Amino acid sequence: MRPLPTKDLFLHPPRLPLIAPSILSADFARLGEECRAVLAVGADLLHVDVMDGHFAPNLSMGPAICAAARRACPDAFLDVHLMVTDPAFFLKPFAAAGADHCTLHVEAVEDPRPFADAARALGLSAGLAFNPQTPAARVLPFVEAFDLILCMSVVPGFSGQRFMPQVLAQCAAIKPHLRQDQRLEIDGGIAPDTARDARAAGCDVLVAATAIYGRPDYRAAIAALRTA
């Protein structure tokens, strides 16, 4: 099994917030170059959005894209977000493709804890995501079992959507239940103004797609998010 030299960066980071560009908005014709470019100018990890066309109304990246990102960036932390109806099915393929972390959705399963156990058996860290309409109370019973909780601030499916501010209360409700070695990630509509609100609500990993890849200067875009 490939060692995970960057795992401590994710769970015990030297700086917060961590900035995670979503490669869903990268130029796929230049994927390796796009991944290297954001890491070279300050990104902390890469976010890989996986959609199966069922759980989320879009069909996106599979293990082959994850493997391509791994080949291009051997030392990067690859944060895989499984927006799929059968997340356990995808664990082994993404582990084999070089993922460091996999997040499933609480809406996809009755009890997400076996997923966390299976992920760790494969050498991965594990995350639990929830959609904007899902109450924090649905997530809280399982927080202890995961390394990361991901709050979706848009309805999963497409990048470029408008941030939904009502999720900030959900983030603030979850944050007090997290240990120091657990992260609270937010994904959807993150830009400098919404990043400021997300940080105030306790989020310490910011996923951004068009706010980074839609800008001509990746360094400036990442710096604006980190200092918002």
Identify the notable features of this structure and list them briefly.
TIM Barrel, 228 residues, alpha/beta, disordered N terminus, 8-stranded parallel beta sheet, 10 helices
Model description:
By secondary structure, the chain is of the alpha/beta class. The chain has a single domain (7-226), classed as Aldolase class I (TIM Barrel, Alpha-Beta Barrel). It has helices at residues 7-11, 31-40, 63-72, 87-96, 113-121, 136-139, 167-174, 192-200, 210-213, 218-226, and strands at residues 18-21, 46-51, 78-83, 101-105, 125-130, 148-152, 183-187, 205-208. Strands 1-8-7-6-5-4-3-2 form an eight-stranded parallel beta sheet. Helix 2 packs across helix 3 and helix 8 (192-200) packs parallel to helix 10 (218-226). Mean pLDDT is 93; it is low at 1-5.
Summarize the structure.
With 228 residues, this protein is α/β, with parallel strands linked by helices.
* CATH topology title: TIM Barrel
Strand content: 15-25%
Described by the principal axes of the CA atoms, the overall outline is globular
Order of helices and strands: HEHEHEHEHEHEHEHEHH
DSSP strand count? 8
Estimated radius of gyration: 16 Å
Task: Describe the SSE topology.
Layout lengths: L6 H5 L6 E4 L9 H10 L5 E6 L11 H10 L5 E6 L3 H10 L4 E5 L7 H9 L3 E6 L5 H4 L8 E5 L14 H8 L8 E5 L4 H9 L4 E4 L1 H4 L4 H9 L2
Parallel strand pairs: 1-8, 2-3, 3-4, 4-5, 5-6, 6-7, 7-8
